[in-house]
Write a structure and sequence with these properties.
By secondary structure, the chain is α/β, with parallel strands linked by helices. The chain has one domain: TIM Barrel, CATH 3.20.20. It contains ten helices and eight strands. It has an eight-stranded parallel β-barrel, surrounded by five helices. α8 packs parallel to α9. The longest helix has 22 residues.
Length: 274
């Protein structure tokens, strides 16, 4: 896939297992070898505690396998520790800001262009108050992100999993409410968009200038082709908008992890027609 038009990535667990990676965290070396052997250009790293990572050693390990890092996922900080950028507890918000800043520093050290702001947005009961707190928290991360050349990508997550930013329009509106700084963009995820965006290609055409990273998963969160999402129209819309970032798989290990290990590379090649 490397020499082709599209840049591709696969989800890889770094410290703690994630349901979106086919290999457990202790098998990092095997996971990286698999990603390279399957034709991926990059490993999208799921990182719970970035401050504990030996960045130089990890970068050498990635380089041995010819892999780059498109973004660092922050969601485990919410899932494991309840850290939230919109928490009503100011001390909890400060701790979360510090964690995101650690992700930014690690991303810069690894040469990753983005840090994902997904579940770490939090799930407050009051949406408007939560959005206000989220804006305040992200603004505290922006100076460091811009200084390090890292983009904070806001992931729109469907209403059943999140309460603040659900649709692509929500993400664009949120970024606009912050003055559309250069250090913030959109992570467009096809699984969530299929639930929240009435017309997926149209959502891309309306807001594609803000999209900095793309997650591919089908309507049932299986590999592309395992559900009913019309991927060609989505890829065409991204092409039309001049998107030149990574296409990274974020799928469940369904029907099982071995099937994902065997089929992931071919599935992505098929959907991207490369």
């Amino acid at each position: 896939m490397g020499p082709g038009k599209y840049k591709t990535g696969a989800t890889v667990s770094l410290q703690v297992d994630t349901v979106f990676a086919p290999y457990p965290a202790p098998e990092l070396e095997t996971a990286l070898a698999w990603a390279h052997g399957s034709g991926f250009d990059a490993a999208e790293l799921v990182v719970a505690r970035p401050g504990e990572v030996d960045a130089a050693s990890l970068r050498r390990q990635l380089e041995r396998h010819g892999l780059r890092v498109p973004t660092l996922a922050t969601g485990q900080a919410f899932g494991l520790e309840g850290l939230s950028l919109s928490s009503p507890d100011c001390r909890a918000r400060e701790k979360t800001v510090q964690r995101v800043n650690e992700h930014i520093i690690l991303a810069a050290e690894l040469g990753a262009p983005c840090v994902t702001v997904g579940l770490i947005q939090g799930r407050p009961d009051d949406r408007e108050e939560g959005l206000g707190r989220l804006r305040g928290s992200i603004s505290k991360c922006l100076t460091l992100a811009e200084d390090k050349g890292v983009c904070l990508v806001i992931e729109a997550i469907n209403r059943y999993e999140a309460s603040l930013i659900n649709s692509t329009e929500d993400a664009a509106r949120f970024i606009g409410s912050m003055g559309s700084p250069a250090g913030i963009g959109i992570l467009y995820d096809t699984f969530h968009s299929n639930i929240e965006d009435a017309d997926m290609p149209q959502a891309i055409r309306e807001h594609g200038g803000l999209i900095r990273h793309v997650h591919l998963a089908d309507s049932n969160r299986r590999l592309p082709g395992g559900g009913h999402i019309p991927f060609r129209g989505i890829i065409q819309a991204l092409d039309d908008m001049g998107y030149d970032g990574y296409y990274s798989l974020e799928v469940l290990n369904m029907p099982d992890r071995q099937a994902v290990i065997q089929r992931a590379g071919g599935s992505l090649k098929e959907v991207l027609q490369i």
